[in-house]
Amino acid sequence: MILHRYFATKFLLIYMSILAVFFVLLTMVDLIEQVQRYSTRDLAFFDLFKLTLLNVPEGLYNIMPLVMILSTVTLFLGLARSSELVVTRAAGRSALSSLMAPLVVACAIGVLAVAMLNPIVAATTKRYHTLSTTYRTGSTDVLSISAEGLWLRQGGPEGQTVIRATRANPNGTVLFDVTFISYAADDGPNRRIHAKSAQLRDGEWQLQGARVWPLGSGVNPQEGVLDRQNMVLPSTLTQERIQDSFGNPNSVHFWDLPTYIQQLRAAGFSARRHAVWYHMEMARPLFLMAMVLISAAFTMRHVRFARSSISVLAAILLGFGLYYIRNFAQALGENGQIPVVLAAWAPPVASIFLATGLVLHMEDG
């Protein structure tokens, strides 16, 4: 028990140290990128640094498997150089027994990442995209899915427009049973429009079966109501911006994903991408454990300086290969070519079996 606690503490300290190093590196690189991206905009350094701090958590969250590989390599190379592995084996501990503490720590890190870090990453990612859109275009386009339907907001020099629709087509360019409420730039609502459908074209909404009510102080909406079979409204929205608003599952935290998936389906959108991400997040602890096993298979031995660099390189390359296969399976699942559960769970489970086999082969021959 004391030995397991020692390995777990050492592994956790190494992991946190490498994670801190990557945080500093990602912050510096992203800050330079933000400065270049907004070089033509009159933005203060504080605004650029705020964008960087909002964007870095997502990158750090995505490279957790790489950090796990490097942490395991560092742990076992250090134990081998200090001959602690030799002492552990002489005491009768098998390779799998020595791996129990790092595996438990990796599983705990994965569970905490999904349960606690994922909501933080979702909030910062959503805020980053909102601010970056505001800085680039000067307007905020926000999409929200709720039990009442689909909500959109578009902005421009003439003011803001709130859009609510009961449902939409899968790509979000056609809205059904839709209501537009326009707000003047420096005043309250000035017009309400209800239409049977609205189709997004280049820079405009094309409405079918529209009814218009004027709004404002001292105005009776029912007296000025107008019926129009066809109507055109200017829009700052595009299909890409609508899909980016709800298409990125990173912006929805793990605990809200089941409800959000149901609401997406009720609104007419495809929720396959979010369903794949939800299952992949549940499988994240298994994948991190697989990274520990892969790294240990190549580095959990007595150090021979001529071969240690080759072993480290092999562990990193195999880890990257499994990470690529995992992302490839995710793409296949999102496109509907393989089932959602298979896309999310097959790579980590297969990685666990492959890594365990490698550990046993490297240890026992």
Automatic annotation (TrEMBL):
InterPro entries, per the entry: LptG, LptG/LptF_permease
Xref: Pfam families: LptF_LptG
Membrane listed as a keyword: yes
Domain of life: Bacteria
Membrane topology classification: Multi-pass membrane protein
GO cellular component, one term: ATP-binding cassette (ABC) transporter complex
Transmembrane stretches, start-end: 12-32, 59-79, 99-121, 282-299, 305-325, 337-360
UniProt keyword annotation of Transmembrane helix present: yes
Keywords (A to Z) from UniProt: Cell membrane, Membrane, Transmembrane, Transmembrane helix
Compartments, as annotated in UniProt: Cell membrane
GO BP field: lipopolysaccharide transport; transmembrane transport
Name of the protein described by the UniProt record: LPS export ABC transporter permease LptG
